[in-house]
Design goal:
The chain is mainly β. Helix content is about 5%, strand content about 35%. The chain has two helices and 19 strands. It has helices at about 45-50, 60-65; strands at about 10, 30, 40-45, 70-75, 75, 85, 90-95, 100-105, 110-115, 120-130, 140, 145-150, 170, 180, 190, 200-210, 215-220, 225-230, 235-240. The strands form five sheets. It has a five-stranded antiparallel sheet, with no helix packed on it. A five-stranded antiparallel sheet has the order 12-11-10-13-14, with no helix packed on it. Strands 18-17-16-15-19 form a five-stranded antiparallel sheet, with no helix packed on it. The longest helix is centred in the first third of the chain and has 9 residues, at about 60-65.
């Protein structure tokens, strides 16, 4: 495994391959701050502003724009140029009213996908874990570091506990209000977030259970009728009959 360098920077060769940076021009690049997404599944805010959207030519120019509060992530202004923008995050350019979502894409792994303004308040989050907290309430631990508390009226009969790990929630940002619950089940529409089939969208045909649930094999069928497989941990549900978020043209 390549070394990540010092605490503040990483070498460009060690940076994730999907970051659109020149690998040989300079030695170092910006390292994402510890936060909601791991380094292998995010892009630092500075790289988005400078290298992807081209709002700045240098790191200094990008840092100045970010510090002035021109950019939002999930509805909140972010002034840390190292802030990690990750899977399903909504990125907003406040001064131009442009909105993007970071989604998986074949070969490239992750891209910023332009979305309509009506989608800016909605985000998909996957339930990675769930725990019972004081009072018998349920805490959902989501893929982007959020924790949602589900109030239970009767701990001995928690009727409100309808959520399972790896299910997906459609929430409003930044309020975190749950809008819709999308179950990981046969017939659901899903996108692959890792592995050789990354970015492919398909309808779940079957789930072959393994001893470790996340290692189960999921069979999906894409819009062209092609069948492919991946592990359950790579599947991210995005809808029931149709996707609740916009996708790149031709994805589904």
């Amino acid at each position: 495994m390549a070394r990540m360098g010092g605490k503040k920077h990483i070498t460009r060769h060690a940076a994730p391959a999907f970051w659109p940076i020149l690998r040989k021009e300079y030695k170092w690049t910006v390292k994402p701050s510890p936060g909601p997404h791991p380094i292998g599944r995010c892009i630092p805010l500075l790289i988005i502003v400078r290298d992807i959207l081209g709002y700045a030519k240098t790191a200094a120019e990008a840092r100045k724009l970010i510090a002035e509060g021109h950019f939002k992530v999930d509805g909140r202004v972010r002034k840390d140029y190292k802030f990690p923008v990750g899977l399903m995050d909504v990125f907003e350019v406040a001064t131009t009213n442009e909105y993007y979502r970071l989604i998986p894409y074949p070969v490239k792994y992750m891209i910023l996908h332009l979305i309509p303004s009506e989608e800016k308040e909605y985000k998909l989050v996957r339930i990675e874990n769930k725990t019972t907290v004081k009072g018998g309430h349920i805490q959902l631990n989501l893929h982007d570091g959020r924790n949602l508390l589900i109030k239970v009226s009767d701990p001995t009969n928690p009727e409100e506990d309808v959520y399972k790990t790896l299910d997906t929630l459609l929430i409003k940002v930044p309020s975190q209000e749950i809008v819709e619950h999308l179950k990981l089940e046969k017939g659901a529409l899903a996108i692959v977030i890792s592995g050789r089939n990354v970015g492919r969208v398909g309808r779940i045909k079957s789930i072959a259970q393994r001893f470790k649930r996340r290692d189960s094999i999921v069979t999906l069928e894409d819009k062209n009728g092609e069948v492919f497989q991946t592990s359950l941990d790579n599947v991210f549900v995005i809808g029931k009959d149709k996707s609740v978020i916009s996708l790149p043209e031709g994805a589904w």
